[in-house]
Amino acid sequence: MVDEDPPTIRSVAVSPDDAVDAFVYSQENPGEAVLRVTPPFHGRMRARIHVYRVDDTHLTGAVHLSPDDVIEDDVVEAYPRLGDELEDAPPDETERTRKRHAEAVEAWQERAREAIVETVSIETADGARRVEVKQIG
């Protein structure tokens, strides 16, 4: 069954790598990265990473899943923030601080790939509804 309405969706297939990469991108770069599901909709959809500066969901009918919603809350909250580390670093320590931050992000990414939620809320014309998250890749 194919439909233009997101209530048709029962599950969303998500690559843990895409979810983690989208989250990190949004933390470290301008613009926003999401997991995007595009019509026509059917029971099981694949969400793919999508980076944008202007939200075009009203034009495309796409559903955007925030990577924050796909990764467990405690892991999202544990993301290492570079600004906090650089604030306290003396100028001669900046490069070492950046390297430590990159290593901390890599460790966080490994943890986050194992912390994908089992369900996520999607927005529909009838309001929010929960769908299953199926890991792929």
Unreliable spans are none
* Helicity, as a percent range: 25-40%
Number of domains: 1
Name the helix and strand elements from N-terminus to C-terminus, one letter apiece: EHEEHEHHHHEE
Choose one word for the global shape. elongated
| Range of strand content | 25-35%
Largest sheet: 6 strands, mixed
List its salient traits.
single chain, 137 residues, alpha/beta, six-stranded mixed beta sheet, 6 helices, elongated, DUF8009
Structure, explained:
By secondary structure, the protein is α/β, with parallel strands linked by helices. It has one domain. The protein is built from 6 helices and 6 strands, in the order E-H-E-E-H-E-H-H-H-H-E-E. The chain has a 6-stranded mixed β-sheet with strand order 4-2-3-1-6-5. The longest helix has 20 residues, at 94-113. The mean pLDDT is 90.
How do the strands and helices of this protein lay out in sequence?
Elements: E1 11-14, H1 16-28, E2 32-37, E3 44-52, H2 57-60, E4 63-65, H3 67-70, H4 73-77, H5 82-88, H6 94-113, E5 119-124, E6 127-135
Parallel strand pairs: 1-3, 1-6
Antiparallel strand pairs: 2-3, 2-4, 5-6
In brief, what are we looking at here?
Helix content is 39%, strand content 27%. The chain is an alpha/beta fold and 137 residues long. It has a six-stranded mixed β-sheet.
